Amino acid sequence: MNAAAKKNLPAKVEYLQQVVDFVSDIARQQGINSDKITNMQVVVEEIFVNICRYSYEDNNLGIQMRCWADDNNFFNIEMIDWGQPFNILNSENPDITMDIESRKIGGLGIWIVKNLTDKIKYSRIDDKNVLEVSFKIG
Amino acid sequence: MEIVAKQEDRSHIIYIKGRLDAITASEFDRYVTSIFDDFNKIVIINLSNLEYISSAGLRSILAFAKQLKSKDSKIIFTDLKGSVKDVFKISGFYSIFEIFESETDALKHVS
Questions:
Q1: pLDDT in tens, B32-58
Q2: Cβ proximity of B1 and B20 under 8 Å
Q3: Rounded Cα–Cα distance for residues A113 and A16 (Å)
Q4: What is the dihedral of CA B73, B79, B81, B87, to 10 degrees?
Q5: Cα A119 from Cα B39, distance rounded (Å)
Q6: Are strands A128-136 and B2-7 parallel, antiparallel or unpaired?
Q7: Cβ contacts of residue A125 below 8 Å, gap of 6+?
Q8: Within an 8 Å CB–CB cutoff, is residue A96 touching chain B?
Q9: Residue A61 buriedness (CB in 10 A; 0-12 / 13-18 / 19+)
Q10: Is the Cα dihedral A65, A67, A72, A73 positive or negative?
Q11: Partner-chain residue, chosen from A45, A99, A116, that has the shortest CB–CB distance to B96
Q12: What confidence tier does A98 reach under pLDDT thresholds 50, 70, 90?
């Protein structure tokens, strides 16, 4: 298994580009195709922005990211935050069949994460939300 | 993110270039608000140079679409590809919007 690259950043939206670039740089090194990398960036944005909005009230303890390719041809991205418990897998799905007038403006981010990734694993360990998303690459 | 617009007889054509994400989506919102009163025709949004869209961008587009609906107008999209196309499909946007391969096809449809 390849060693995981790691990065810590504040959970603030202005750090979005750094979060996204971290993942793309590593993924590019693995020779992953650019459309897939863009999808990875979208997933990472959705998770990151969610953490920025909801995880912390006063004390922003930031996020920790790791990403690595494994021996089973998956590229894995792990995001850890120290905020309130939040399991993305338990979120309600938006109704994507509704028409323009009825469509709610929110709710799509998590749905996109669920549909662009091949595996999602959530754990609450000590006081951390640990979310691992995986993309099949081989 | 860059937005360029031009007028045709029966439509406005908007070109969105770059990335529409949580940071740039508000620029799109501001743009749309600043020219909204002018939208009395169909709006064609050409995405050939949009390399990235996240839910923030989809949200802005949906808000714009709702405003246009209240003016009896609508959005048609063209030139979707790659990740942008995947995100549109996942979000059900293919069911609620007309989407054409090219601007030429869309213009034929409008006239």
A1: 888 767 777 899 999 999 999 999 999
A2: yes
A3: 16
A4: 0
A5: 43
A6: unpaired
A7: none
A8: yes
A9: middle
A10: positive
A11: A99
A12: confident
Tokens found for residue B8: 């045709």
Task: Determine the Cα angle at B50 with ends A92 and B38, to 5°.
Answer: 90
pLDDT at position B14 over 90: yes
Which candidate from A14, A39, A96 shows the least CB-CB separation from B91? A96
CB atoms within 10 A of CB B50: 23
Q: How far is B92 from chain A (nearest CA, A)?
A: 5
Please, which residues bridge with residue A63 across strands? A9, A81
User: How confident is the model at residue A91, as a pLDDT?
Assistant: 82
3-state SS string for B29-75: HHHHHHHHHHCCCEEEEECCCEEEECHHHHHHHHHHHHHHHHCCCCE
- Give the pLDDT score at A106: 66
Number of residues that make up chain B? 111
Residue with tokens 């942008």: B84
Angle at A50 between CA A3 and CA A79, to 5 degrees: 15
